[in-house]
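User: Quick sanity check before I run a bigger batch. Here is a single chain. Can you write out its predicted 3D structure?
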Amino acid sequence: MPEKNGIKQHGLDQAWFAALLIVLVIFLAGLLIAGERFAPAQPPKVRPVRDDVGFCWQAASMKTLVDYLASQEKESFDSRGLVAAISPHDDYLYAGRLYYPLFNLIRTREAVIFGVTHGTVRNEIKGLDSLLILDDYELWPGVLKPVEISPLRSYLKAHLKADYFTVNNRAHELEHSIEALIPFLQYFNPEIKITPIMVAPMPLEKMKEIAADLSRVITAYMKENKLQPGRDIFFLISADGNHYGKDFNNLAFGEGQEAWEKALTFDRNLIASYLTGRLDDGKIAGLTGELWGQAYLDYKNSYWCGKYSIPFGLLTVQRVMERSTGRQTRGSLIRFSDTYSEGVLPLKKIGLGTTAPFSLRHWVSFCSVAYYLD
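Assistant: Done. Predicted structure follows.
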């Protein structure tokens, strides 16, 4: 009898232990769930600022800059039918007179920004060739507040052919050509959302191949979301022009004042011949013939850092407009200049500076070109 009672007691002890274990597991699970519920939310992943000298990231400083540029502006430009543009990405104190009249025209909900893949990026990250570079940051820096990413970026990742793009946050951290456009874009469009796309070096036929698929995907996104080009979605191409002088080892037209004048004439003719008027594949091919050497990685008579972003961006814009509206696209020059001509804007103590000198040994040209439905 004592043995049976002992067995019974042992069974009760096991049952109590099992019950206690279940209660403990439930208690710990509850703590885990409560901890997750009340744990502080992780901050969104924000792409860091690359250039806090040449570009403006303070609202008050931006207002001072824009007010000054507005007070000096003597020309007016048409915004009707505006759907895309080429913008410089040089320092605001050099190129402010080119940024302002362009971005003052743009009123839109979201923007696709085609940026350069500068040598700084390609020197650190190998293999960036014949593709587009996307990112996965949740926000980008802005001058009024952080800038949200358009749903188009996820749509591209889901629908664009996989071998046409890569996702690389480090590449976007190193590159400054896209962030340069954001303060002006957001100042005039406070709720703007963006899709940043870096364009890597690639031959013309590859550009056409990728642009065809990209335009297909963008047009589908526009139709699904009932977006109109210009009003709802805008296309920006970031590009500076020629980098000329001894400092760049670029002396195609010689040295001194006469060489500067010849190089500017070359750029003006290039803009008139290939960047303005009605867009077509022949013009874009002609542009690459002037900007590239024998191969797409080579240079010819000028060092345009937009040698890939411009032709690829224009191929894409042309195809998106044809698909979405059935209309052609026409380019109109807003302004052309260079750092040697412009010098530095007379604005002091507003948090802006210059990241490079200007002289006949070292100057950069730039243009702002507007593209309209034709």
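Residues 2-38 form the longest helix (37 residues).

User: Great, the batch can go ahead then.
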